[in-house]
Structure formats: C-alpha cells, structure tokens
Specification:
Elements: H1 2-9, H2 11-14, E1 17-22, H3 30-46, E2 52-56, E3 63-67, E4 73-77, H4 83-96
Helix pairs in contact: 3-4
Amino acid sequence: GNNMAAWRQAISKNLREIRIHLCQTSESSNGVREFIERHYVDLKKQNPKFPFLIRECSGIEPKMHGRYDFGREKSISLSNLSSDQVLKELENLVLAGEQT
C-alpha cells in the first residue's frame, strides 16, 4: 500500500548510505541475491542520487550496513533471510533513522 512507498522515499532523507555485502554462491545469501534482482532497480529509481553499494565477496556472511548522520552506523545480518525479509530489514534501517 501507500505506506511502502513512503519509507522507500524516506531512504535518502533518513540515511546517508546503504551497503549490502553478500556472497555470490552461498546458500545463506540466496535471499539477498533475489532481493537485489527484484528490488534494487526500483529502489535506485526512487532514490537516484542515493549510494546503494553492493559488494560481492566469496564466502562472507551477508549483511546490510546503514550509515546515518553524524557517522552512526547500524549493521544487520541477512544470513538465510528471504527476499521479503531482507526488504523488511531495509525498512527497519530506514525507520531507525527517523528517531534521531
């Protein structure tokens, strides 16, 4: 619904940067890879100037890092999460930025 669009547009307002680290082959990164295939392009379109950094590295645990104002960072493990759960974690990172 509408709510979904709202937090997506708040990404560049609430955060300075998002980094997603994943492994190209491991099972535990499957949902993250699917998330990127499904959502990355749309998220980029909605936040064209925002730095969404995707780093692929063999054998690592998949994680998402959000950087906020004043250099605050928050990291979330994405290990074995589904694509939808990864999206939810992204939403949580964005909403966490509202509380500053």
